[in-house]
Design goal:
Radius of gyration: 13 Å
Largest sheet: 7 strands, mixed
Oligomer: single chain
Number of strands: 11
Order of helices and strands: EEEEEEEEEEE
Structural class: mainly beta
Shape: globular
Number of helices: 0
Strand content: over 45%
Length: 118
């Protein structure tokens, strides 16, 4: 399975943005999906993850209540809806997939840059 992330861009604080992750070449439904982010001089952070059925989602405390992860298994896409964006959310966001319920993220997309700035 290959992952292609899209939807990043430059937005102002308080704005919303939706990232998409399109999977191809395999059985998307077998994978838990997630989003990591990497900001300059900061540790990589898992911001959101959703299980294979879409029934369980988990979030980092830093984004809880602002970000929502979802998946469209029919169309092999997962989404990260980001609301009330803050400058601290500026990072490269990576779409990831796991066949082990998140114990190991073996699939990585290429990353999409989100910049939150006035």
């Amino acid at each position: 399975v290959q992952l292609q992330a899209s939807g990043g861009g430059l937005v102002q604080p308080g704005s919303s943005l939706r990232l998409s992750c399109t999977a191809s070449g395999g059985t998307f439904a077998h994978y838990s999906m997630g989003w990591f982010r990497q900001a300059p001089e900061k540790e990589r952070e898992l911001v959101a993850a959703i299980n294979w059925s879409g029934g369980i989602a988990n979030y980092a405390d830093s984004v809880k209540g602002r970000f929502t992860i979802s998946r469209d298994t029919t169309n092999h896409i997962s989404y990260l809806q980001m609301n009330s964006l803050e400058p601290e959310d500026t990072a490269i966001y990576y779409c990831v997939g796991s066949q082990s319920d998140g114990r190991r993220w073996e699939l990585w997309g290429q990353g999409t840059l989100v910049t939150v700035s006035s």
